[in-house]
Amino acid sequence: MTGLALAVTLPQAGNIGGGGFMMIRTPEGESQCLDFRETSPRRLVAEVLSERTLKPSSSSSAFGSGAPPGEQRAAKPARRGSTSPSVLGGLSVGVPGTVAGFAAALEAYGTWSWDRVVGMVIDLAETGTWLTTRQSLYLDMYFPKLSLFPSTRRCFTDRGIPPLPGGMFRQPDLAITLRLLAEQGPGAFYSGPLAEKIVRQVCLENGVMEEEDLAVYAAVWREPLRRIVGEREFLAPPLPSGGGFVLQTALGLLASAGVEHTRPSTDERAELLARVFRVAFALRARHVGDPDVLSEAEVASAYRHAQQPYAHGDLERLEGELFPQSPAESLTAASGTGPSTTHYSVIDPDGGSVSVTYSLNTTFGSKLTVQGAGFLLNNSIDDFAAMGANWYEMVEEPKNALGGRRRPASSMCPVLVVRDQKVELVIGAAGGPRIPTAIAQTLLPFLLDGCPLEDAIRVPRVHHQCLPDVVVLEEGVSDTIVSSFVARGRSVERHAVLGLAVAIHRDVHTNRLSAALDPRPTLAMETME
Fold it and tell me: Does residue 2 form part of some domain?
């Protein structure tokens, strides 16, 4: 129910038009990952994406010529900009998995009926919610892009202007969709009139989706990635989650490199984190893709890196193998990496635990709303290896190649931490490729250094994603650490925020619960695309 409610109250990230991952552990100790990541349409291959530039449809002419002056892009940009067809409009849309995922989880583990769960959020859309200052700012910031498509302009503007805070924000079309799903079941999303609306909207705006793409979609249960460090077992999503791969690889390398002998907020730990993250992201580019497309040997190789116990010296060995000569050529730094991902963590009275991350990819996704249905569609196609670096400056390799009905690699990384066979921590984050590094840097001070959870989540962060070959530091990182990186010849950037984390901790001895929500200002991560 939480995920459906967020689809109403947090439209820039909460969704029924996107996808994600759900980590589940039952009170009896069974752990599973539910992959409800989006898939590419059958007809969408790299050649189609590279040949099509974003062209205003006839529907866009009601309020101008489409993209603002100066924002038209060439067919093959070095980096996928905010008006690239892989980011904006119908060609960027993957087949949504959220409805199928929520339905599969409810069928397997739920105690309420589907119609009861969906029915409880219909009023939120129909009656409306008071528009907060924060939500009003989001709608104002993204007003130019949200205004490009008439269906989106109708739902997310107030008669053509950004809605002001304090007003009642109603979404009657979304209420109609939710009522349909409540009455007819989750299958109504993937066939029938609603599926026809989705396909019609995508194709109207330059896309190639077919009704069969929706009809054959299915969420997939997968075995989690597992890593044991000391007395704890860390459970994270497997492929196609690159976030799970990066986190589990990084945790193994940090343990083998003696991270426990470094102190928090020192140049020694910051340098170790940057080195480990750089290696983990380099391995991610080489190994992560759709596990249903990769060979068994390729999948096994990826899982070996993510789960094997690393030994002392392995970090240096991998650095020598991956970066044998000069540092990799640096790409232009991203102009912005605002999150359109949301995470929520749950522990129930019986000890059952759920960690859920789902997304539209960039903020408000493709900016394309399904006419008459009231929900935004994702732009997950941008996560494939095609047309250079994606919007997050991730440089993907052939294992994540765009092809028909494939799942793109993802940075999403919902995590469960188990101790003494009980879930001790449920954690996740938003922030694109900064998700796994934000989680790792919350886990270390909390589990290793003994910081209270609310303090651990505040520790200033370091990020390195291999390409661009730049160490990115939060503004809270000390000048001493910055100077130490510069002295080592590293390229350094300062960012206000590197990821937003949320976590629930349960003391496995007393069962006392505590929670922490990242205090970093969400809007500090936002930039106009």
Answer: no
Residue position matching structure tokens 């087949």 = 95
Residue 137 to residue 139: CA distance in whole angstroms: 5
pTM (2 decimals)? 0.92
By residue range, what is the domain housing residue 517? 222-335+411-525
CA–CA distance from 247 to each of 10, 222, 242 (Å)?
A: 27, 17, 9
Residue 508 burial (CB < 10 Å; 0-12/13-18/19+)? middle
pLDDT tens-digit series, residues 172-197:
999 999 999 999 999 999 999 999 99
Nearest-angstrom CA–CA distance, 19 and 219: 10
Tokens of 468: 């661009």
Q: Enter the tokens of residue 14.
A: 């909460």
Collapse the DSSP code of 10 into the 3-class scheme (helix H, G, I; strand E, B; otherwise coil) and give the result: coil
Spatial strand order of the sheet with 500-506 comes to 225-229, 232-236, 415-419, 422-430, 500-506, 513-517
Residues 6+ apart with CB under 8 A from 325: none
| Angle ∠(255,256,258) on CA atoms, nearest 5 | 70
Q: Copy the structure tokens of residue 455.
A: 């303090």
At 191-218, the pLDDT tens digits run 999 999 999 999 999 999 999 999 999 9
Q: Identify the CATH number of the domain in which residue 490 sits.
A: 3.60.20.40
How many domains, the chain? Answer: 1
